[in-house]
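Lab notebook page, bench 4
Experiment: in silico fold of construct C2
Operator: M.H.
Input chain length: 486 residues
Purpose: comparison with the prior construct
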Amino acid sequence: MAAETNSGPAAGSGYWNEIRGKVGFYVKLGFLLFLVLLLLFPLALIENLVGERKTRRDTVVSDIARSWGHPQRVTGPVLLIPYRYTIPPQPFVNAKGETRMTPAETRIGTIHVLPEAVNIGGVIEPTVRYRGIYRAILYTTALKIRGSFAMPDLKTLSVKPGEVMWDGAVFAMGVYDLRGARGDARLTWDGRPFGFKPRTRSTILGPGLHAPVALTAPGPGATAQPIIFGFDIRFTGSRRIAFTPVGKTSTVSLASAWRHPSFDGAYLPTKRKIGAEGFSATWAISYLGRDYPQAWKSHGPKGVPVPMHAIARQIAGSQFGVSLVTPVDFYLKAERSVKYGILFVLLVLAAIFAFDVAGGLSLHVFQYALVGFALCVFYLLLLSLAEFAGFLLAYLAAAAMATAMIGFYAAKVMGGWARAGVIAALLGVIYGFLYVVLQLEDYALLVGALGVFAALAAVMYGTRNVDWHALRGGPAPKQAPKAAPN
């Protein structure tokens, strides 16, 4: 009886200890999973903050561009020739219900003629301007524009020679933001000089300039010779410059000391060279590769207007050019780094949990939370420091501060520097890997995916022999002493 009395409480105590160990294991694991989900909230706030700062930067850059010059778009040149067209009499019903005919009406339309050849050569001189902590990429460009026009085929356009007002012809060139014009541009047209005036006098070209160039009507049976033109223009802009292939053959050659060009638009350069000294690029485009004609008039049969907005869209859709960009700015890097945040939080907390369970540390959930929030603070430090010190120095400083803070804290709560050193080493590997991924552009996703795979494989390999059932069970129950024989 004495044996039963002694063995009963001891056995019951061991059983309840095992139950408490299992419950405590699962409760802590559940709290950790909840903590990981909870840390998504500060990470999301930091990601939103990155977006806000980026928007603020873009607003400041736009303000600088408004003063210096917007991204420029060069459209043309186009030869505008006025002509007379007649609206025939149209029937209408008057107030008495009688059908009457309107009188024939003569109006003035415009023939748009695109050049036979356009050759544009230019140098883009980049400059960087600062406002506070923000910077804007600006440029000044000097363009040499040469080419030739042929007289329009009036028969194809269904225009009679007597209807054309040759003396009212206008040479027009679209330049999106003429506030950045520098100096006085003068046109040489068929060997004669002409001065430019503001406005293009064409809804298709938008803002720009024009020069009146009186033409002479070609004589009967005469073969019109191409008209040679040329002019130089200098203006300022920001970030991007674009052109349109208006000639039967359009050639654009650009050079700049900027080392990070981004070629975009409907056509890529046929030749390009990018190096430490900058870039050079050449586009050679045939009119066969575009959707709009070489000449058209503003009104069709019976004076019906031609949908000029459709032609304007086609011309705008044929733009090509180059942007002066920063390869990967620190806002984009910071935004990309935050996206890896939850993964890094999970890895570090999992490593601390492994020490906790295997070493019997019995860490409090609040201590896990402090480490998790410390990992989130790294991204806030990175963003704030990068705006002043550049991304590399900011990253090194933020990583060192976060690693030191977590390392010293881990040394205290985990009972020594050996375990804390493992956590600090893990943080060093994580931050080093993240920096490599952030520096990549084309291969960032591939390297990131391989890194995640390697981390998961390392965890699986390192825990392959762990008896998880033994870790969760708590202290083993004590054996009751054997009863003495009667």
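Observations: The chain has two domains: 2-55+330-472, 72-324. The first helix runs from residue 2 to 38.
Next step: discuss at group meeting.
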